Amino acid sequence: MGADREEREGLMPERGRTTRHQDEPEDHIPGAETTAPVPPPTATAPTAPPASPAQGGAALRRTGLLVTFLLGGLTATPPLAMDMYLPSLPEVTTSLHAPAATVQLTLTGCLAGMAVGQLVVGPMSDRWGRRRPLLVGLAVYVVATALCALAPSIAALVAFRLVQGLAGAAGIVIARAVVRDLYDGVAMARFFSTLMLISGVAPIAAPLIGGQILRFTDWRGVFVVLTAVGIALAALVWTRLPETLPRDRRHSGGASAALDSLRGLLADRAFTGYTLAGGCAFAALFAYVSASPFVIQEIYGASPQTFSLLFGLNSVGLMAAGQINGKVLVGRVALDKVLATGLTVVTLAAAALLLLTTGALGPVGLVPVATALFVLMSAMGFTLPNTQALALMRTRQHAGSASALLGTTSFLIAAGASPLVGIAGEHTAVPMAVVQLAAALVALACFVALCRPWHTRSRAGVESWGEES
Prior knowledge:
This protein is an all-alpha fold. 72% of the residues lie in helices and 0% in strands. The chain has 18 helices and no strands. Helix 3 (64-75) runs antiparallel to helix 8 (154-182), helix 7 (131-149) packs antiparallel against helix 10 (219-240) and helix 9 crosses helix 15.
């Protein structure tokens, strides 16, 4: 039954092996095919929503570029909320008379909120559709961000940041679910690469924007700007993003049904493998983000301007690789092969970093270390989009829950790995390299052991239980 449905809907075979009949154009809208007869509705069939998937897809095609930037903006919520605020941390310490360690909790609270919020919002979007939870989440995000600007104490700011993260998770998880609603196979992998191009700009631009804001106002002005961005996103969602999940594909039931969907996803070995591989790869990236300011400037003596240049160059490498992945490789090379290559390059680059930082190759300067970091970051452009696409190809009925598990897993693994980069003190870069290599090796092991990319047998994956939910 699941295999028949997979063939009928044009789903990708397991683990993303691309075949000719699945090389769909980028504007392909799942559910709008005319090659298979559609049974007439029965008396007990749910009433179709005002905007069917085909109608909603047509509306999205008419404003495709705007909607692409809208979904990219939603996925850029984490770096905007986190990085734009970073330059103002010293000022917050002085303004609210709080120690630096307590002020750091404002970052931790936001990150924890985004991790937990995805598990809540994802299943909700499978039950009530995408638009309603997304609009509610954005409304709460706007209110919480405005309250951050008015926070009278550090305790209040930490609390408001937690709520901001919980609500901001709606944009992250539902953006991926919308992509899964609208695209399949090759087209979905290409779209994720495009989203990486857009969201990849945010970590570069956000600290620069935050620093410029502080030239004209104080740290509270940063949250005023973030509030305005949230309002703009909410307005665009309200006017430009139609519902993409029809009523007949939504799920009834409460928390037990949501838990069942999460359990069913985790029971699928390949989905779990792609999720863990993507989470560990993201942890290697986050280890770089956490440690690179200290490593590049304090250990290797680079100026802040040089660090900013290298950080931007690495981000450009990641985005360029993502575009090569989406525009050149996807549709021509099996996604599993591209992912395997990306994970291998990440592992080799991390191993090279470990050799360089331990002195095994003799004294080295900044250039070899920066080169290895550039290779590692660029390879993420072949890794992160494909783990997301391959995982979401495993299910259509539970795209919101699947997206939630993808996001939460990445955030939690990255949050656990991040403190380890400074465990050996301030005078060595070895912990960063060790964390990156360990994360890359675990990602590669999960991919090989759980996804089993060498298998040629196509299976229905989690769709078989998704039909029965």
